[in-house]
Design brief:
The protein is an alpha+beta fold and 121 residues long. It has three helices and six strands. Residues 14-119 form the SnoaL-like domain.
Length: 121
């Protein structure tokens, strides 16, 4: 079971890892057998090591983005958030994340949906 405080800690850790691109901080977010789903029809990234590798291959540079979020729903071991990512001098994105937590607080499953903010929203 998760709650808002646990979700906030996980999102804070995600942002720390996003800023640092430190493999240990990234890995600490995900269960050893965690799954990261990025887009429709794409194969899931399965396993902590594969998730870290995927993250680092597409990493953002520190200070290149700003992120604001709020919870939409928390039920049992699953949380849903809505967010906005603003990239300096690049496209901005609206995000929906669905995170299913393992008993130890790591993400057993992480699914993200995103769409470009075309400025009309």
């Amino acid at each position: 079971m998760t709650d808002r405080a646990a979700l906030t800690r996980w999102i804070d850790g995600y942002q720390r890892a996003w800023r640092s691109n430190d493999p240990a901080e990234i890995g600490a977010l995900f269960a050893v057998d965690g799954v990261y789903l990025t887009e429709p029809y794409a194969d899931p990234i399965a396993g902590r090591d594969a998730i870290v590798e995927f993250w680092l291959e597409g990493r953002d540079e520190p200070g290149d983005w700003a992120f604001a979020w709020h919870p939409v729903a928390i039920e049992g071991d699953t949380a849903v958030i809505q967010a906005k990512t603003d990239y300096a001098g690049k496209s901005d994105y609206f995000n929906i994340w669905v995170i299913r937590f393992a008993p130890d607080g790591t993400a057993a499953s992480f699914t993200e949906w995103y769409m470009v903010d075309d400025g009309d929203a």
